[in-house]
Amino acid sequence: MTSPKAVPPAPPLLVADGLRKTYRLPGGDSLVAADDVSFTLPTGGSVGIVGESGSGKTTVARMLVGLVRPDAGTICVDGRDRTAGRSRGRAARLARAREIQMVFQDPYLSLDPRLTARQCLATSLSLHGAADADARIGELLDRVGLGPREAAARPHEMSGGQQQRLAIARALAVNPRVLVLDEAVAALDVSIQSQILRLLVDIRQDTGLALVFISHDLAVVQHVTDETVVMRRGTVVEQGPTKRLLTAPEDEYTRALLDSVPRRGWDPADALRDRAAASAGGQDSGKVRD
Fold first, then answer.
1. Distance between CA 62 and CA 180 in Å, rounded?
2. Rounded CA separation 222/13 (Å)
3. Which of 225, 203, 205, 204 is nearest to 213 (CA)?
4. What is the pLDDT of residue 93?
5. What integer is the mean pLDDT of 86-105?
6. Residue ranges of the domains in the chain?
7. Which residue from 47, 71, 118, 121 puts its CA 20 to 30 A from 31's CA?
8. Whose CA is closest to 170, among 220, 213, 127, 131?
9. What is the pLDDT of residues 19-75, one digit of tens each?
10. How far apart (Å, rounded) are the C-alpha atoms in residues 194 and 128?
11. Dist. CA 288–CA 290, nearest whole Å
């Protein structure tokens, strides 16, 4: 009897290989923001890139999306090199946008203040020639937990959490393969952070969307990533399964990052329960809480 052939593993969706970026400074000096950064991401996977300010993690994020061109290295999605001989035509730009989208730390700065949430999504969909835009807009708003009231609101009429939900919906509008989130919950309070993190986990499970989560906070990364890359001064000091890095870090810098986290055992579910209890208490006392 012949044994069944082993099924070969699927190739990675995203491959970042040897990324390097140097910035020229006044006076002739230079700053190496990223040096030989490599990692892979499977379809539906999630990787965190963690480090303190100046570690190079945001530079890597901007290279992935195409906002910054690497001096060396390659970025491939489904085997296609995004860094080689990029066409500047509109069709090529839209094709790249459908591969990778980005959500920034401050959603208000990335949203057009003149447009309502519905108009914001309609504009994004029209750029990509989406059919049945009205139905798609309703689906996107529902996906991120925004109702009719928020759909008619402009960014300044929304809370920070609602703005970030809209930014996520806009990024999802083109059905990207990869979503890069650069400190996307850093400016939110803990209870709102927990809601956004749960939203991202649900979207990933439901759609197979792959995530690259940029953060300085290992307490946050532990809940949304499978793998983590730890960066310091532009270089990777450690990478591997997130659970292993959190429980048995090998590098001294990773241990220092863990020691600096005030919420190592933090669970988004606890924050949600605390917020629900606070809300119930406010209703009982006749006070309205945000």
1. 9
2. 22
3. 225
4. 76
5. 81
6. 14-114+177-284
7. 47
8. 127
9. 999 999 988 889 999 999 999 999 999 999 999 999 999 999 999 999 999 999 999
10. 32
11. 7
